[in-house]
Write a structure and sequence with these properties.
The protein is α+β, with helices and mostly antiparallel strands and 249 residues long. The chain has helices at 3-25, 67-81, 93-106, 116-126, 153-161, 175-186, 217-224; strands spanning 39-40, 45-47, 58-60, 140-143, 146-149, 168-170, 211-214, 234-236, 240-245. The N and C termini lie far apart (88 Å).
């Protein structure tokens, strides 16, 4: 190797070392522009739009969120968004999607990461300082991937946060579908005492109409007897243990 090649190689090595040192020195959240545009590139590192910009955009996501912090995020999303998340301290697909829904609602950049801006918005929302609104009294939402009357989602969320380990099996059904079930069950559009057809509470989505069928119904029923939400919902014992509504039917 010639002395010229050796000199060039030395300069190139020095340049890489300088760049590496410069990039590592910027791994601090305080040096990152607070734009909220954070994209995860690896488990612990988040980077803004252009890592090679003149003003370094690399940032370190300080320690990531602890499991307790993730549980707080999940619980807060359940309260302010009715997300129906399992409060398990793990950011899985459902939690990520709920974070993005919250960011979208609050007008933040939608990236699914709870950085300082999103964390601040969550804190404001849970304290009533954000744009959060009470759970809707009408409409259809989802819990466990199953459609149900939106006003019932906080009941399911509250139960899960307090130890219910079951799932939502059935929630909202269109009147047409409810009628079809009766035709299959008893050969008629409704079956007194067995199938209400189009009048089924399952076809309601305006509070207090609406109904849910759940597993682990014994524990769910115990919790609903303690739930502070109104109106109370309960099941029709001993006839229909899995079905809960404001009337029990």
């Amino acid at each position: 190797m010639t002395s010229l090649h050796t000199a060039r190689r030395g300069r190139l090595t020095d340049w890489h070392a300088t760049c590496s040192k410069h990039r590592m020195s910027t791994f601090h959240t305080t040096e990152a522009p607070e734009t909220g545009r954070w994209i995860r590139r690896r488990p612990d590192v988040i980077v803004l739009d252009d890592p090679w910009a003149a003003s370094p955009a690399w940032a370190y996501e300080t320690g990531a969120l602890s499991r307790d912090e993730v549980r707080w995020v999940q619980s807060t999303l359940n309260r302010v968004m009715g997300s129906g998340l399992a409060v398990d301290g793990v950011i899985g697909p459902a939690t990520r999607a709920a974070i993005m829904d919250f960011q979208r609602r609050e007008g933040l950049d939608v990236d699914g990461i709870v950085g300082p801006i999103t964390m601040s918005a969550l804190q404001q929302a849970q304290g009533g300082g954000g744009s959060s609104t009470p759970a809707p009294s009408s409409g259809v939402g989802t819990f466990d991937g199953v459609e149900c009357a939106s006003w019932l989602i906080p009941y399911l969320t509250w139960a899960r946060e307090h130890g219910w380990q079951g799932t939502l099996n059935s929630g909202w059904r269109s009147p047409e579908y409810s009628e079809q079930l009766c035709w299959k069950m008893c050969g008629a559009p409704s079956c007194p005492g067995r199938c209400a057809g189009r009048a089924s509470n399952h076809s309601g989505s305006v509070k207090p109409r609406g109904a849910i069928d759940v597993t682990d119904q014994t524990r769910f029923g115990q919790l609903m007897a303690q739930c502070p939400l109104s109106p109370p919902i309960f099941n029709d014992l001993p006839n229909d243990r899995v079905h809960f509504s404001a009337t029990g039917h």
